Amino acid sequence: MDEQRMWWEELFQIHEFATYSDVAASLTNNEVDFLEMILNLTPDMRVLDLACGNGRHLLGLARRGYHVDGVELATPLVNQLSAQITAEQLPARVIAGDMRKLDDLGMYDVVLIMNSSLGFFSDFEHQQLLNDLADHLVPQGRLVLQCINPYQISSYMQHYRRGWHQVGPGYVLRESHFSPTTGTIETAYRYIEPDGGQAVHPGERIRLYTFPEWQQQVQRAGLRLQAVFGDAVLPIVPFDETSQWQILMAMK
């Protein structure tokens, strides 16, 4: 990951969540409640959180006594998360690396890919990643994959297409559009500093898949789809025509 992208990761994953810490804490607590319930987690299980970012889910689960490994590419996030794990003496660790290169990892009872963290690569790479994850799941191990539902992209984009919001001392302008020919959300960001200085994001592209497409990819990886939910909250939200999210749970 180049220095410019790492700067943006630090801005969004550290400073943005600090700016909106109360909202982030409430969201994380609700999502961890959801994961505990649907996975019927027990303290002896090993959990892998891929593209763990600032560690919202990793820390939330580890604070409840679960053993969690995280994989994250951005060095500033790895450093901060490692320091936090050490300071709190949590049963967790964070591994610096690309989520597409999992050879050195062991076996897990649960693998999490939350908040549309899968979709930044090619179709072939996404399938290969799912294949590799299946190899790192124990028998009857489970994968939880949270991603945007493209059938409701118009509803999702009403709140996401364009807007300013404060991050730290400055403001971020977000401009997004969905390309139906490629099935991708493409987003540009610009950060305005208090002194008028600006930083421009190199660009973000997320491939969205429909539920039938995800179902096929999961099955090709040798996993059996168990359930799909409309949001990562409790009480359970069914996946239907109004759902902006799709959360798939599959078993090896």
Automatic annotation (TrEMBL):
Keywords tagged on the record: Transferase
Pfam families: Methyltransf_25
Domain Methyltransferase, first and last residues per copy: 47-141
Name of the protein in its database record: Methyltransferase domain-containing protein
Organism this protein belongs to: Herpetosiphon gulosus
